[in-house]
Design goal:
By secondary structure, the chain is an alpha+beta fold. Helices cover 22% and strands 25% of the residues. β1 and β2 form a beta hairpin.
Length: 301
């Protein structure tokens, strides 16, 4: 099932806040939850169903003290859908489905620094990712997450009404393309710059496929303007929305530890990998899961 059918099925099967098989601890008032006493290598169908619901409710779920091999990582990710093999990030030597999110001690630019949501430049954006910590610096390297539910809810009624009628253009050209921001980051970190040629158009406010809630869907890294607007007209409103979406009360800062895993939903959160560990190595393994088409949010009459 895809699109609106998937949306209806997911909403109908989730009773938000009812978790009988998992121990869920909210990470903050707006975004994220910790899932305790679970082994991701052996989860059953009931636990997986509740994890999907928690993802729809909290936007990102965190796990500590996991012991995932690359095969375990792939097995867990396969429970959620088809794997999106990243065309820009280098993969591990043994698993093409696992992308390396890596920064070496001699590099200053990191992957994922700055607020963004992954794959919004695709016609059918990815659901989200499962990120596993492999090598961590002694200090630094945390990741920030921000709720796009909370960001939308806090807007004025007038601005909500304006945004509900808008669609935005997203692109990867200026980031991963031959003349993009990562062009000098290192040839072994990024691949296929010639494939950064696609643009996509999505509603500015989407109906989240699991929760049905309104979620703000523009991001600083990949959104380049509103459909039918000039860049000069688009940028002031986009800048306001980006600053608004990063307000501290919408965010949570996750500190990585050995054995940590995070799974986030690109349709509900932005994330920002902090680049505060120059001179140290950080290696994460990321698997991205395919999603479905995004539907515009339609308020109840």
């Amino acid at each position: 099932l895809v699109g609106s059918e998937m949306c209806i099925r997911d909403r109908a099967s989730c009773d938000m806040g009812e978790y009988r098989h998992l121990h869920i601890r909210p990470a903050s008032t707006a975004v994220g939850a910790f899932v305790d006493t679970i082994d991701l290598r052996t989860i059953d169908d009931a636990e997986a169903d509740e994890l999907r619901c928690a993802l729809g409710e909290f936007g990102v779920v965190f796990f500590r003290d996991q012991h995932l091999s690359p095969d375990d990582h792939l097995g867990f990710a396969n429970r959620w859908g088809d794997i999106n093999v990243n065309r820009f990030f280098a993969s591990t030597a043994t698993h093409p489905e696992i992308a390396e999110v890596r920064k070496e001690p001699d590099q200053e630019l990191n992957i994922g620094g700055g607020w963004h949501t992954d794959h919004s430049y695709d016609q059918v954006p990815a659901l989200g990712s499962v990120l596993v910590a492999r090598e961590l610096p002694d200090l630094g390297g945390d990741t920030l997450f921000s709720s796009m539910y909370a960001a939308y809810d806090a807007l004025s009624d007038g601005l909500k009404e304006t945004l509900l009628d808008l669609r935005a253009v997203h692109s990867s050209r200026h980031v991963f393309g031959a003349a993009g921001a990562y062009r000098a980051a290192g040839a072994d970190m990024f691949e296929n710059q010639d494939q950064a040629t696609q643009d996509a158009v999505h509603p500015v406010v989407i109906a989240h496929p699991i929760s049905g809630r309104a979620s703000l869907y523009v991001n600083r890294a990949f959104t380049i303007g509103f459909e039918g607007w000039t860049p000069q007209e688009s940028q002031p409103l986009l800048d306001y929305l980006y600053q608004h979406a990063a307000r501290p009360e919408f965010t949570f800062r996750f500190s990585w530890e050995p054995g940590s895993v995070a799974m986030w939903d690109n349709r509900a959160v932005h994330h920002n990998a902090l680049n505060d560990y120059h001179g140290h190595r950080r290696l994460m393994h990321r698997i991205t899961i395919e999603g479905g088409p995004l539907d515009a949010y339609l308020p109840a009459a």
